[in-house]
Write a structure and sequence with these properties.
- The protein has 5 helices and 7 strands; from the N terminus they run ααβββαβαβββα.
- With 187 residues, the protein is α/β, with parallel strands linked by helices.
- The strands form 2 sheets. A 5-stranded mixed beta sheet has the order 5-4-3-6-7, with helices on one face. A two-stranded antiparallel sheet has the order 1-2.
- Helix 3 crosses helix 5.
- A hairpin with a 5-residue loop joins strand 1 and strand 2 (63-65).
- The protein has helices at 3-29, 31-34, 84-100, 116-126, 174-185; strands at 55-57, 63-65, 74-79, 106-112, 132-135, 154-158, 164-169.
- It is 38% helix and 18% strand.
């Protein structure tokens, strides 16, 4: 086989492998894998599954029960200071939290797989304006059942009735999150 033929075969193999990888990622991070009717899009109200009970101790030692925020749109973000995409996403979440506060939107983080001190240092560094529950055993994710996060970071929006209205697995952008939050929070 000539050098040129080998190059063409290697290129074709690389294209097929990339396509299979993309299809696999789409399948495993898609709606069906997450047990949700849609991922990355606002779920129609009639199709929204109930959100789980989320209760825990925040990084500052306070008790937080998300059910006490019923009547408000709630954004839940699973993160860890060890997570590189979480570092990129942290300023986005802080900005959307500030920009949607007037809509009555509440934000909470779930700091997973680390000690509270590391999470607290992360929150201070990125000036996170909302509380995060410390979940070193990553147990809260399991409460989501079939809709459990499949990546870190993962973000969920719960509507005012506590139903999952939107989910995204991976780092979200300002535009994407802000649009979803305002759509869910709209009367």
């Amino acid at each position: 086989m000539t050098w040129r033929a080998r190059l063409i075969v290697c290129g074709a193999v690389a294209v097929v492998a990339a396509g299979l990888l993309a299809a696999t990622v789409t399948y495993f991070t898609g709606a069906k894998a997450a047990g949700l009717p849609a991922v990355g899009r606002v779920i129609p109200a009639a199709q929204r599954p109930p959100g789980p009970g989320i209760v825990g101790t925040t990084l500052t030692g306070q008790h937080l029960n998300i059910a006490s925020w019923r009547g408000h749109t709630v954004v839940i973000n699973f993160w860890g200071s060890w997570c590189v995409p979480c570092r990129k996403e942290a300023p986005v979440l802080a900005r959307v939290a500030g920009d949607t506060r007037s809509l009555g939107v509440r934000f909470a983080g779930i700091d997973i797989r680390e000690r509270p001190a590391a999470g607290l240092a992360f929150e201070r560094h990125y000036r996170i304006p909302y509380p995060s529950i410390s979940d070193p055993g990553n147990l809260i994710a399991g409460r989501f059942g079939a809709a459990a996060p499949v990546a870190t970071p993962s973000t969920f929006i719960l509507d005012s009735r506590g139903r999952i209205a939107w989910a995204y697995f991976g780092a979200t952008s300002y535009r994407q999150l802000e649009l979803a939050v305002t759509e869910v929070a709209a009367p």
